[in-house]
Amino acid sequence: MLANRVVPSGIVTARGSNPGGGEGAAQAFDGTAQTKWLDFAGSSWIQYQFAAGAAHVVTQYTITSANDTATFPTRAPESWILKGSNDGANWTILDSRRGEAITANFTSRTYRFSNTTAFKYYKFDDILAGKDANGDRGSVIQVGEIALQTSRVLAVKAGSATVAGWGDDAAHASGGNFYSTGQFIDVSAVVDPAPQSIYQNERNGNFTYTISGLAPGGKYKVRLHFAENYWTAPGQRTFNVAVNGSLALDHFDILAAAGGQYKAVVREIDATADSLGRIVVNFDGTGQPDQPKVGGVEVVIPNIDLARGKSVTSLINESSSFGPGNVVDGDETTRWSSGQWSRNNQIAWLVIDLGARFDIDRVRLNWEAAFGVDYQIQVSDDGSDWTMVRDVVGATTGGVVEHANLKAGGRYVRIYMTRSRINPTNNFSIYSVNVHGA
Asked: Is residue 418 within 8 Å of 375, Cβ to Cβ?
């Protein structure tokens, strides 16, 4: 089950298309960029409705350009608005983009946005064709492929039978055999465990899982679900697991890792999809006792805090106990304080060096009682020239504040504060700053 790629079982509608040329609306969601959707208009829309009334929380999407976009660059969509709905009539704006024309052939670009609501309909509205060198907008729009994606990209169990939320692995696995047990599996030590049947069934032997249809170069987390349902002592089964050719688990012993027989254990592996949008997971027990096995494979989009543990500087601190590093230490009980109550200064700032340039979608602030009333979130590539991406004026509450859909990019993130609820001293205090993106 590829949960990240909407399959043609849903309903696709559009303002217009070219079905006679094999370029209908459904071709935008058919799982391959070798086909395309084409509309003879400079402004259009396309909509996907999930099958059987299902609703999904979409958090990113990938658009792939068509076969001849380089020849007809104005056909590439330049801007659009993504909306979600549960009745097809009332819409919520989820994301908007400008200046995004992909003018090379078969080129993918992934867009992330913050969303926690499951919608039945997703609509790319107000799509505009690109412009030529004279600034004239094109009169045709085309897209090779659109993939709507959720945080859980893939969930498959060993064997042909399916269980709620988990599909069979036939389309992804090669090699190996099957084994199952009716024994109860203890999942108490696993965070976010799979259903019982995932651990009761297994694919064993030397085998490979190939997960395709991902965003090329995309960052993912592979979750492997295990339980030792045969051996009773450590050392009786060990094996290696490699992801895209790199060793991820060396002489892995399920029973030793889980602490006993019939106990579930999960191993999470960070992975990057290759240039073809694939993650290949190979299980090999050559020369080791018994043979590899796995009960289920998940692929998820990790929610990485880009700021955790990074270098932070500040204009002013109350003391070393309330230094700027406290906002990125992962501890929500430590905090930074500007200490303006003891200094003649009305502004304060924090600068986080992410270590490299990232696309930045969301910034989370956890304010102490001395929260910012007026402040900005700014980004920079060099730490000198700053671009404001969110301007807050007149905030009335502190605590946890989520700033989503920033659509920004940079190496440095600055929280620039000019007015606090603590007047007239303007002291500012923050427990944590989290930066999310890719």
From this structure: yes
* CA distance linking residue 422 with residue 413, whole number of Å: 24
The pair of structure tokens assigned to 368 is 């102490």
Which tens digit of pLDDT belongs to each residue from 285-338? 999 999 999 999 998 876 678 999 999 999 989 899 999 999 999 888 999 999
Tokens 């905090």 locate to: 335
Distance of CA 122 to the CA centre of its chain: 18
How many of the other CB atoms lie within 10 Å of CB of 88? 13
The closest of 285, 176, 284, 291 to 231, measured between CA atoms, is 291
Query: What's the rounded mean pLDDT across residues 8-35?
Result: 88
Q: How many domains, in total, are found in the chain?
A: 3
Distance CA 166, CA 44 (A): 36
The closest alpha carbon to 332, from 398, 400, 401, belongs to 400
Question: What would you report as the CA-atom Rg of the chain, rounded to the nearest whole angstrom?
Answer: 25
Does 305 reside within a domain?
Answer: no
Q: Which of 108, 123, 149 is the last residue of a domain?
A: 149
Query: Could you give the percent of the chain with pLDDT greater than 70?
Result: 93
Model pTM?
0.48
Q: Is 31 left (phi over 0), alpha (psi -120 to 50) or beta?
A: left
Write the pLDDT tens digit of every residue in 344-402.
667 899 999 999 888 888 899 999 999 999 999 999 999 999 999 999 999 988 888 88
Instruction: Dig out the tokens for 188 from the structure.
Output: 């108490």
Cβ-based neighbours of 4, under 8 Å, separated by 6 or more = 147, 148, 149, 150, 152, 153, 154, 213, 214, 299
What domain range is 92 assigned to? 11-149
What's the CATH code of the domain at 411? 2.60.120.260
Give the pair of three-digit tokens for residue 187: 């999942």
Give the chain's length: 438
